[in-house]
Design goal:
Arc Repressor Mutant, subunit A, 9 helices, six-stranded mixed β-sheet, 3 domains, about 300 residues, WH_DNA-bd_sf, D-Maltodextrin-Binding Protein, domain 2, alpha/beta, about 25% strand, WH-like_DNA-bd_sf
């Protein structure tokens, strides 16, 4: 009989690539993870890992087992959701991960609704960049989270996750007025190739998207400031400190003196959760409480 906890470790190794990373995700020691994976190999009766010095890789049998293990783990998630559904009312802890502008515009009204309708539900929100949410869900540090992608940075959702669409919004270049560029400003992105740019922290989705948007126009932006909060970004743009790429959701509190130039890309937001968890009462209640928002027609929301 294959141990489910060990199957989860094997799936995490396929995702995280190193035993050290798996150990950190589970607060185990690397030697403990290695021992559990060796025990799983004995249970399976075939080699699952190829070890070369300190490096490990999955064998063909290991990759096959991961595929089947993902199905097993999703079935267990559905089972847990079904058991939770037979309880009276929606209760327990729901851990939510989201980015700041969504916390202000989407989550706050949802939290109020959930609090009014399900007083026994214990809600905990953690601010996370969308790029960090999938790992937090798979590591079971979150129950639901908001993930994103841009046309220029498509998202390949892990097979252990499911998601539902939430928003599809326009993306703008925020510039000061007058714009910090050449007098002959035609409003195209290349006109701002020599401007100072306000970029997000490297490694975040917004930073990656801005780089890709600029590179598609033939230049790499010159960073003057690195700011992750869009409210602060727009204040700096208004103060003449640079230009920045901002999504529609962040423009509801645009200061005077900031112009928004449309860019030929869009950003999509989805609510994600572990595969099989959609039927969990708390997850279902959360998804139902999210407001139906169309940022393309409601620019006042921010």
């Amino acid at each position: 009989m294959l141990d489910v906890r060990r199957l989860r470790l094997l799936c995490d190794l396929a995702r995280l690539q190193t035993i050290a990373a798996v150990a950190a995700a589970h607060t185990y020691t690397p030697s403990a993870v290695s021992q559990q994976l060796s025990a799983l190999e004995r249970e399976a009766g075939v080699p699952l890992l190829e070890r070369t010095g300190r490096r490990v890789a999955l064998t063909a049998a290991g990759r096959l087992l991961v595929q089947h293990a993902e199905v097993v783990l999703a079935a267990l998630e559905r089972t847990g959701a079904a058991l939770a559904a037979v309880r009276t009312g929606v209760s327990g802890e729901l851990r939510i991960g989201a980015f700041p502008s969504a916390i202000r515009t989407l989550l706050t009204p949802a939290l109020v609704t959930l609090g009014e309708q399900h007083a026994a539900l214990d809600l905990m929100v953690t601010e996370l960049d969308p790029a960090e949410v999938p790992a937090a869900l798979l590591d079971r540090r979150l129950d639901v989270g908001l993930i994103q992608d841009y046309d220029v940075v498509p998202l390949d959702v892990d097979q252990g996750l499911d998601s539902v669409p939430l928003l599809d919004e326009a993306v703008h270049l925020a510039v000061g007025s007058p714009a910090p560029t050449t007098p002959r400003d035609s409003g195209t992105l290349r006109d701002f190739r020599d401007a100072d740019w306000i970029l997000a922290t490297p490694g975040t989705l917004c930073h990656t998207a801005t780089l890709q948007i600029c590179r598609s126009s033939g230049f790499t932006p010159k960073a003057r400031h690195r700011i992750d909060d869009f409210g602060t970004v727009l204040a700096l743009v208004a103060a003449g400190q640079g230009v920045a790429v901002v999504p529609q959701l962040a423009t509801g509190r645009t200061p005077e003196g900031v112009r928004l130039l449309p860019l030929p890309t869009r950003r999509r937001t989805r609510a994600a959760f572990r595969q099989g968890a959609a039927g969990h009462p708390a997850v279902a209640a959360f998804l139902s409480a999210l407001p139906q928002t169309d940022p393309t027609t409601s620019p006042s929301r921010g």
